[in-house]
Specification:
By secondary structure, the chain is mainly alpha-helical. It has 3 helices and 2 strands.
């Protein structure tokens, strides 16, 4: 692609490609949802078989099915959770990641602050909007 094209043509072309991409994604999403629904129906039937047979796994010539338990934990009371973590000295309850918005706001309010170990990567992005 050359830079010789007028900007208006590049914008038109970009919007056209974005719409094609969006349409493909929509079609893909619809087909994927149908497949996932079918898979969920079959999964329910297989779980029913495992329950009926009081089994945690079944090996077949086509493959093996295994029933396992997945547990997730969360809190709806962060203030109490923070207090519990401090009182019980269990900082491992936290995940190692930064809240991007909070870090950005802190740095904007404290431009001279030197935050140890903080890495920053900024990149330009381009937004193209359809004219009205």
């Amino acid at each position: 692609m050359t830079i010789d094209k007028p900007i208006v043509e590049l914008v038109k072309q970009y919007i056209s490609l974005r719409e094609r991409k969006s349409n493909l994604a929509k079609q893909y999403g619809e087909k994927k949802a149908r497949i996932e629904n079918d898979m969920n129906d079959i999964s329910d039937l297989l779980m029913s078989h495992l329950k009926t047979l009081d089994a945690t796994s079944i090996n077949t010539p086509a493959g093996m099915i295994i029933r396992s338990v997945k547990t997730n934990y969360w809190t709806s009371d962060w203030e109490s959770m923070h207090e519990f973590i401090r009182e019980n000295d269990v900082p491992e309850f936290y995940e190692k990641r930064l809240n991007q918005g909070q870090v950005r706001a802190f740095l904007e309010e404290n431009p001279e602050a030197a935050v140890p170990g903080l890495n920053v990567n900024s990149t330009y992005s381009l937004t193209v909007r359809r004219s009205k």
